[in-house]
Records
---
Amino acid sequence: MPQPVKRTLKLVLAYDGADFHGWQVQPGLRTVQGLLSDALARVTGCRVLPQGSGRTDAGVHALSQVASLELEAAIPTGNLAKALNDLLPATIRVLSVKEMEAEFHARHSARAKTYLYRIFREAICPPFLARYVYHYPYPLDEAVMQRTAKMVEGEHDFTSFAAADPERGRAGAETSNLRTIFASSWERPGEELVYTVRGSGFLHHMVRNLVGTFLLVGKGVLDERGLRRILDSKDRSAAGATAPACGLYLKSVEY
């Protein structure tokens, strides 16, 4: 009798993070990874834990999260995507399933990620937007925020913008806080102020801490030299507060 062939699959997902305690499986809590693992077990009869390109926190959304897994079930990729969407809550959608080379890994194979952060600037935030944006109607010098966004581009030690991460101490976990930011910009499409950042990788809460610090620049509390000092200080306490999770989206992952 032929042995089942092990396949490496790449799943692309979108989800509304407001309903979940983040991506990573946690005992007794509703997470994206946990629900996806349960749905895979029901469809294929195989219990696997899909590995994400990164861990989105509670309340953070994803337009294009990538997960990888090894599976011995022979179900066609198109049928698998449909079956998973039939079981998953409507706030999680599997956009595609693709068979990959055995070496592919959603996190280790990633070359770049792009995040965006949405700030709603009008006086009244529509209730249908409230869980998808950070409502900040107060005065900001948006022009200086746009100008200073470029200051974090390039390779830097981003310790000042990294929250404590319990995963960092585990065997095999990366310990360097050096990251390369390829592009960093603020734009004003209509009623929103949107931050877009593309980099080689990101530390725990790094994007939200950058946003919180740029808000200090916009309020006039911090100038360009002050931002440079924070970056150079490698001291988390020197930077701004962590911006709320609701405005953050994982936009894309590149391989």
---
Amino acid sequence: MNPFLANAGRSLGIRIRSFFWLHPEWWTIGLAGAAWTVMLHHAWRNSGHGVHHAMTLIAETVDWIVMVFAMMLPLITGAVRFTASASLWARRHRAIGGFLLGYLAPWLAVGFAAALLRQAGWTHSYTAPALCFVLAARWQGTTTYKRAQWACHRTRPIAPLGWPADRDCLRFGSLIGLACVRTCWPLMLACEFAGHSPIALVGGMVIGLVEKRRFERRRRPSAFIATGTMAAYYAVLAILEIRQSMTS
């Protein structure tokens, strides 16, 4: 039977419950939406700072994690859905939570290193994100990048019960997290060094979505154009910044 016709006679409450049953990753998307709200609010409060805005090590690390949730969670809904479907009904949300904890671990390590770099004065210029976007465009053409992309779409068996199930969810999340780190680290560093600018964040999100679509449909890499555009944008800002410093 057509699913649309099957749902036509159901009440709104049943259809809502059916949607949440079919899409257990819904609250993961909710986390991403909340993270975007926090990032955009932070950018609005600190308008005019951006690249030059300095924060403490802890604040930079927290902002990094929020940025990871905002930009990366929408790209891993397939892995989150697999984790839920491979788990028992009563454990599916617990399984998603374990997956996200494992996924966050490698990003947290990279974020702490990025926050340490952000304490240096040279990262508070437009040259830093421009170079990172150039590096991201170059990285997309490497064999390591392509292998990491494949690793982002791998699956692993998950035990049904007990601590083996929790272990498998954490392990699967960490493996996907490591693959995503290998794929997107230059792009995320560019967004970090851009001071979490909305332009950099939205541009990075678009690049990630375009590259995910390209991978799923086996098309030629079109994200290179978007990454190059972001690199050119920040390169122009870097040149203007250098000229202004020379004349002042």
---
Amino acid sequence: MLGQEFDAVQLTAYKKLSADDRAYGLALAYATRRLHSRYELTQYFRRKDYGDELSEWIMQRLEAGGLVDDGRFTEAWVHDRRLLRPISKRRLVLELRQKRVADDVIERVFADDQTDERAILTELIVRKRKQTRYRDDVKLMQYLVRQGFSYDDVKSALTPKGW
């Protein structure tokens, strides 16, 4: 192939192929750092100013490689978030909806989830009570409601009888 000459059309085609391959390489690196939802990848393509055709081609290749799966992403997101700190189901659902995961995928993942919300809430109360600013019931209650737990659950967990 040494000394081979290309006309302008071939050169343009090879330049486009090279640019597309580079874009795929960048998207592949992004997708392999951690699992992403379809929406997150779409936003990544938009930030990179990839055209619709190129974005669709890259998405198909990533799907074929098993790197785009909202079900796996949702399971991993729920597992990782709960591993890091106690968090309510309501808050997790909100985060997943912000990432544009379909409701049926979210419902399927939570149908298989065996996590006890009461245990999470109790664990969080015990941990937060050790901090001086959360010894006041009102502040602790406000914090827990902001974390997505229902007011009634928080109120009953903070009463002397508990659940």
